[in-house]
Amino acid sequence: MRVLLVGSGGREHALAWSLAVSPLLTKLWIAPGNPGTATLGENVPIGATDVAALVEFARDNTVDLVVPGPEAPLVAGLADALAAAGIRCCGPTAAAARLEGSKSFGKEVCDAAGIPTPRWERFDDPAAARDFVARRGAPLVVKADGLAAGKGVVVAATEAEAEAAIAAFMEQGTLGEAGAAVVIEECLEGPELSVFALCDGTDAVFLGAAQDHKRAGDGDTGPNTGGMGAVSPPPFATEALGGSVMDGVIRPALAELARRGTPFRGVLFAGLMLTDAGAQLIEFNVRFGDPECQALLPRLRSDLLPALLAGCDGELAAFDLRWEPVVSVAVVLAARGYPGAFRRGEPIGGLDATAALPDVLVFHAGTRATDGAIVADGGRVLTVCATGPDLAAARARAYAAVNAIDWPGGFCRRDIGLSWLTADRPGTA
Predict the structure, then answer these.
(1) Which is the most buried residue in 59, 142, 360, 384, by most CB within 10 A?
(2) Are residues 230 and 280 located together in one domain of the fold?
């Protein structure tokens, strides 16, 4: 198989690492890739959202399968363009990718399919949005309706915070067109859980569960980020819970999309809140999470490549995946200042020695190779992952590896997964 992987982050490095070990693989390209993916395949200088150039490259190089990492090219129609060229793509069409591209569309699918989700309303007029906040009161969650790279959600504890989010998104244009409309929904309490499924339009296979840690600071403080770490599986993610999510969320969503004439193929990510009344769908994503992907894939015993092919070819009904009986912890190292302004160009040392530690993987994201050195070149720069027989062991290995990296300009959360070891019933962490 000749495979083109699209993207440049830690998620794509993890996917490249997983695909590279497949005996079915003969050639792997990554567009545009990063210094980490360059050790596993050939990076090509094509942007992840340059749909025309990606299709042209895939056609010219007789690519058998395209694996999109981020959501933006899917929403832009990459799968549609590849299908028109006769090339497999393990990702949804633009119509099905609206599950993530439009928060309100995802909510409409939930309502039509009977999937539990917080009460919500959509607004494209800021005055109407403010009036709703005044009538309903806080706490509320304000979400940009469009793609916002993980930065379009504000959990507003007060009406003033909700109004500030409305002003920023809808009037100040801090998120561009993504924030021109907003979804405002009730604020729920409980642990969060991300469940992943590989889908072929009709059937789905469980791809694991993880818990992301979104806020920048320890104790779940500070601004929301794209994700500062993940645990897979979190202690509460039982086999029974996974089965109930597949039956109560994933399969109903697939059936509703098929009914609408937009069958979903690829990775479907259900972001859930586990409330006292049961699991509720917070949002859908149409790809692996980041950093959840980095935590999930080290646990996968099966070959990922034939699974992705089965998803493209509608052959998941009799497919199964096997997982290692371990816990995985992923810790993101970010540039100081992230998710605000941060510095680029600082050298990072100790990476080779860190990656050589037992049961440890270091995935690149915002890095750049300069004169033989690796330097920071983004907000989220590295994801350090470790596996162990239990959460405590995996955490110890992950943070020992973090401590071995020489990068004074970086920071990380020191409490990834910690709440599950120190409390009878932790919060959302």
Answers:
(1) 384
(2) yes
